[in-house]
Amino acid sequence: MAIQIDSSFAFSLETTTDVLLQFEAAAIPEQVLVVSETEITPTEERASVPAQDDIGNRIWLRAQGNVEVSYRAQVELRRKVADLSSLAPLPPHDLPGEAVEYLFDSRYCPGDRFQAFVDGEFAGTDGGARVAAIRDWIAGKFSYVPGSSGPQTTALDSFVERRGICRDYAHTLVAMARASAIPARYVACYAPGVEPQDFHAVAEVFLADPSRAGGGTWQVVDATGMADPAETVKIGVGRDAADVSFLTSFGPSDFLRSSVAVSRV
Fold this sequence. Notes:
Structural class: alpha+beta
Strand content: 35-45%
Radius of gyration: 18 Å
Helix content: 10-25%
Largest sheet: 6 strands, antiparallel
Mean pLDDT: 97
Number of helices: 5
Shape: globular
Order of helices and strands: EEEEHHHEHEHEEEEEE
């Protein structure tokens, strides 16, 4: 399975400002970069650093004025996708250290606020079956409404409003999974079939790996139903959207435009 990606965006900085970008597909074993080409307006400084969990890279820029970013890639996917409902949970005391941080509350995902709800609504389920039930509940209860949420919207806000965009669906699933003692993280990604096409967000949960005794596996889950886990190209992962924004400006900035096209080849 190969995925073609063409994305671009532009922003303006009134004064010299540090900016952190994360938009390139990650080069990891489950996805191989056949083509990867990035063009960025020349800036005062530019440096690439590893992103969270060594999944993908971030680019530091120090710039002023208009900045244009253009990215083209072809990615061959080799992800092993399991039957989510069949995956058992891993007891917390058996979790590897790198998964433990994804049990904790984060800025947009207050899992502790959902504990009573998940214990009542999804009683009798655990592991992958619990995650599948959460995914289906969000898909059935939420309405996908562009423009209905903003940078300050949390999973709890989305739960109350019962609407949002991919970011909000992912945050809610992450929070409910953590409330169920299942490590969950936020994934920035590209995927064909997303409407309207844009940078996308899904969740990823850590469950028992049926192929390795005592092992665990991260599995992609999209409550919007738009992204097929087998066709999802990861950009990066984090506790929530704050960790993997495609553009983080450490000073005033004006976002000008963006364009994303993703297709199967």
